[in-house]
Design goal:
With 198 residues, the chain is α+β, with helices and mostly antiparallel strands. The protein folds into 2 domains: 88 residues, no CATH class; 102 residues. The protein has 4 helices and 6 strands, in the order E-E-H-E-E-E-H-H-E-H. The strands form 2 sheets. Strands 2-1-3-4 form a 4-stranded antiparallel β-sheet. Strands 5-6 form a two-stranded parallel ribbon. Strand 1 and strand 2 form a beta hairpin. The longest helix has 30 residues. It is rod-shaped.
Length: 198
């Protein structure tokens, strides 16, 4: 049976991992992490102090010798986020999904580009009717910009979906990126329908 992947809160309360059990056991026994460091793996209901699951690491938590050289604050600094009187970080700051952040940034660029292109197209059509028909440099540039914009929207949607599958990560940016990209695509479709209906 493969060793489960573990996550832990470093002394600043930031989530680290995944790591294997041997890494955590060694860090605890070396004193790099204290026995109260918060840990988590699939199957646990939530973040728990290491000493609560020490048996899974082959450590008898009733043996006082294994904590003799540990940090007095249990692996967390006194001013770590969520530090309590016992000194352990009770709240682990979950990191944002990197793919979600990338999706959000890409979708924002795509949305701004869409608005700029729609405004330019409206101004050009008003001032020079028929500018977008035929093989003109303006029509070619606009077409290329639209293709780039659609590719950015597709990329943002793919990144957002990937962000949802990253374990132990916040997906707020993935959700925002997905919504912005989908709204941008809907606006483009509505613009094309409105343009062809005229």
């Amino acid at each position: 049976m493969p060793d489960p992947s573990w996550f832990y809160a470093d002394p600043t309360g930031t989530q680290q991992g995944p790591v294997d059990a041997a890494f955590l056991r060694d860090a605890i026994q070396r004193g790099s992490l204290g026995p109260n460091v918060k840990v988590w793996r699939d199957g646990l209901g939530g973040w728990v102090p290491f000493q609560q699951v020490a048996g899974e690491f082959g450590i008898d938590r009733n043996d006082a010798g294994w904590v003799s050289n540990q940090h007095p604050a249990g692996g967390a600094s006194a001013n770590a986020p969520g530090a309590q009187a016992g000194g352990s970080a009770s709240a682990v700051r979950e990191l944002h999904s990197g793919l979600g952040v990338a999706a959000f940034i890409t979708a924002c660029f795509a949305a701004v580009l869409s608005l700029v292109l729609i405004v330019i197209a409206a101004v050009m059509e008003t001032s020079t009717p028929g500018w977008s028909t035929g093989n003109t440099p303006g029509a070619n540039a606009a077409g290329l910009a639209v293709v780039v914009n659609w590719a950015m929207c597709a990329l943002a949607i793919g990144l957002a979906i990937g962000g949802f599958f990253q374990k132990n990560r916040k997906d707020v940016f993935a959700i925002a990126g997905l919504v912005i990209a989908v709204v941008t695509v809907v606006v483009w479709i509505a613009s094309v329908i409105a343009g062809t209906a005229e």
